[in-house]
Amino acid sequence: MKKDFSNAERAQILIEALPYIENYRGEVVVVKYGGNAMINDQLREQVMEDLVLLHLIGVKVVLVHGGGPEISDLMNKLGKKAEFVDGLRVTDKETVDIVQMVLAGKVNKSLVNLLQTKGGKAIGISGLDGRLIECTPKNEKLGYVGSVSKINIEPVTDLLEKGYIPVISTIGCDKAGNTYNINGDTAAAYIAGALEAKRLLMLTDIAGVLRDKDDPESLIPKLTVVEARQLFDQKVIDGGMIPKVECCVTALMRGVRKAIIMDGRVPHSILMELLTDEGAGTMFV
Questions:
Q1: Is 17 inside any structural domain?
Q2: Are the C-beta atoms of 171 and 181 separated by less than 8 Å?
Q3: 222-247 pLDDT, tens per residue?
Q4: Domain that holds residue 35
Q5: How many CA atoms lie within 13 A of 46 on its CB side?
Q6: SS3 for 145?
Q7: What are the residues whose beta carbons fall under 8 Å from the beta carbon of 85, sequence distance 6 or more?
Q8: Residue 233 lies in a domain
Q9: Contact of 234 with 69, CB cutoff 8 Å
């Protein structure tokens, strides 16, 4: 239900947000968005509204997206079974064409269009454009799955300087021009590092890092790199959370000031994290 605020209350909310707006104005914030956090139409619109608001107050927003469910859906329609090894999609030549079609085509352009209907200026690019993401084969048994070897960040900085929100699909290429599927979290970490971003926000479908995976109330609000490695050893960070935490650590090591794993299912969680004291998710410092 939509809340009714008086004009005085609206003004007070804006005044309280002012220090945060000043803190992020002119800074780069990279948002990784994908997987199950993208499925709900209403939540997807709210995420785009958050990004447009940040853009309009002077934050340099970069959106890096995946689209695993959409890829699997098209593969099913084409009679091709999705196969995963250690959480990564096995990608043969036919599958990498499907990945490129879905990510650089359908998903990328849908997000660009939605940002623009919300009042933003956005341009969609892939890791192939300007050889933004160069890679090498990650593992022979995975096929066309790439390991990032170099980020050529100029296409992104050019768009930011022109006042656009870059929307980046995570496919890359090797020196011979072959196309590869790149893990979205990994790509976001490397791109954020190349931009020396103030924040990397990883939107997921869980609250953040939990001390007890069965207890949502056991959220750990802040972790250092050393503490994160201790939790790896203790098996507190396990399963699908391992690559996400590893990507946050990679981002910090490559120059990002803070990285946050946060729940993309919470309405306007991005604004809560950046423009209030409340915050959202687990912050890595």
A1: no
A2: yes
A3: 888 888 888 888 888 877 777 788 88
A4: 24-284
A5: 17
A6: strand
A7: 139, 141, 142
A8: yes
A9: no
- Look up tokens 């507190």; give the residue: 236
Could you give the CA distance from residue 185 to residue 183 in angstroms, rounded to a whole number?
A: 6
Which phi and psi angles does 49 have, rounded to 5°? Answer: -60, -40
Amino acid at 162: K
CATH number at residue 83: 3.40.1160.10
- On whether residue 1 sits in a domain, the answer given is no
Residue 134, strand partner residues: 150, 173
- List the structure tokens of 263: 């729940």
Share of the chain above pLDDT 90, in %: 53
Q: What is the mean pLDDT of residues 28-55?
A: 88
List the structure tokens of 102: 């879905």
How many domains are there within the chain?
1
> In terms of pTM, does the model score above 0.85?
yes
Instruction: Concatenate the DSSP letters of all residues of 54-96 into one string.
Output: HHHTT-EEEEEE--HHHHHHHHHHTT----EETTEE-B-HHHH
- Report pLDDT digits (tens) over 189-204: 999 999 999 999 999 8
Strand 60-65 and strand 165-169: the pairing is: parallel
Instruction: Specify if 177 maps to a domain.
Output: yes
Q: Print the SS3 string covering 201-254.
A: EEEECCCCCECCCCCHHHECCEECHHHHHHHHHCCCCCCCHHHHHHHHHHHHHC
User: What dihedral do alpha carbons 127, 265, 283, 156 form, nearest 10°?
Assistant: 20
